[in-house]
Amino acid sequence: MSQNWTFVCATGELLPGEMKSVFDEVTAVPILVFNYDGDFYALEDRCSHEEFELSSGVFDAGEATIECVLHGARFDIRDGRALCAPAYSPVRKFPVKLEHGGIWTRDDRD
């Protein structure tokens, strides 16, 4: 498990309704960070259906969902759960912390 946090951006650079992708500095896993009404969430930037990057999709800030552009699978950004076919497995959720005026995340898998 990575103990190193990856800097995403300054808190003021990711406004409500926006998302930003980064790579975990240790594991090189792509992570997508969302600002949902001032709360920050992070998911692996990879659809669980076909491993396509979710960052190419549409973040619906009203519904707190991300839709994969490849086949239309939707996921809840707050917990990563799949909301419709063709995805049945959740997307991996990662921790987010706010520190020193920045947003940080990390791949916390063992």
Question: What's the quick description here?
Answer:
The protein is mainly β.
The main sheet comes to: 4 strands, antiparallel
| Low-pLDDT residue intervals, each spanning 5 or more residues | none
Percentage of residues in helical conformation: under 10%
Instruction: Give the mean pLDDT.
Output: 95
Report the CATH architecture.
3-layer Sandwich
Give the end-to-end Cα distance, rounded to a whole number of Å. 4 Å
- Could you give the count of β-strands? 10
Highest-level CATH class: Mainly Beta
Number of domains: 1
- The fraction of residues assigned to DSSP E strands is 35-45%
CATH topology category name: Rieske Iron-sulfur Protein
List the helices and strands in order.
EEEEEEEEEE
The structural class is mainly beta
Output the strand order for the largest sheet: 2-3-4-8
* Global geometry: globular
Report the total helices.
0
The Cα radius of gyration reads 13 Å
CATH superfamily: Rieske [2Fe-2S] iron-sulphur domain
